[in-house]
Write a structure and sequence with these properties.
This protein has about 350 residues and is of the alpha/beta class. It folds into 2 domains: about 160 residues, Rossmann fold (3-Layer(aba) Sandwich); about 180 residues, Dehydroquinate synthase-like - alpha domain (Dehydroquinate synthase-like, alpha domain, Up-down Bundle). Helices cover about 50% and strands about 15% of the residues. The protein has 14 helices and 11 strands. A 7-stranded mixed sheet has the order 1-2-9-6-5-3-4. The protein has a two-stranded antiparallel sheet with strand order 7-8. Helix 7 runs parallel beside helix 11. The longest helix is centred in the last third of the chain and has 20 residues. The protein is globular.
Amino acid sequence: MESIKSHSYEVHLEELAEATLRQHIAKSNYSKIFILVDENTKKHCLPSFKKMLADKVDGILEIKSGEEHKHIQTCLQVWEALSSRGGDRKSLLINLGGGVLTDLGGFVASTFKRGIDFINVPTTLLSMVDASIGGKTGVDLGSLKNQIGVINQPKMVLVFPKFLKTLDARQVKSGYAEMLKHGLIKDADYWKALKNTKTFADSACIKKSISIKNDVVLQDPTEQGIRKILNFGHTLGHAIESYFLESDDKETLLHGEAIAIGMILEGYLSHELKGLSKLSLQEIKETFLKSFDKVTFDAEDIKAILKLLKYDKKNSHGDVNFVLLQSIGTAVTDIKIPSNLFHKAFAYYRE
């Protein structure tokens, strides 16, 4: 399957990914090669992945899985492990895991010794189509999503769809939400095809989603303009995800589950402010609720979620900036929302 070219790296899939990795290792003369894993990828993905490297690994570094461990203390553990095992500026860090691990591992590599090479090997659908692509790295600040980080590109991204067989259905559906987002913001035909298929986790759909995100990133690597459209559903979605992460009496939501809610809410805002048709709004709501269970929000939940909006990364000069849809396949950025519409959006979601 043909590779996808970005600014300074390529995304390789399946057999070509394995061949490219071996060629890169053979010619790069790295002083040390480290693989970062969590307890899940160590058990389910590392054994087969190590065979591709022909025993050229100098160290396996393990962190705990889950968004609650995506913080600077975990980075400290990995930095110290790299240092104690002789890592230097000519070392390579391979991030073998989901979005939390590739975000954190990319940040660790970008800052260790002022920057070492890293390769992302995403093992979840979410990380294959979104988190590992585009060079965003970083960690959370408390429960606030992705507040600390840098944009720095990997040497390559290697996608092996076979790793999806190690996931439960909930994790796979979390990635499906981001794929649907790609259709909503950029490709109405892809949205239509994707919402009507049960085989969204195949290589063709994965490549299509990667291509859509990569095309946007190529136009705007540092998110000054059009790249902001990738945040559709994420302004409210991230606030919801953070709120559920910090609440002891709430079950933690996966990223895609929170973003699915965010896309329904921001779809409603799009209808009110940017002319998204009532029919399209209903289509968006029905599509997400077909795959994701409805979550209950009371008045205090909504109040707390809205307070978290002030921490969104897209904000500037005290304004909360939203990405909205004019139609399915067409997104607009930097939209201010009248405060009275937020409660109406949650009411629409609740109906």
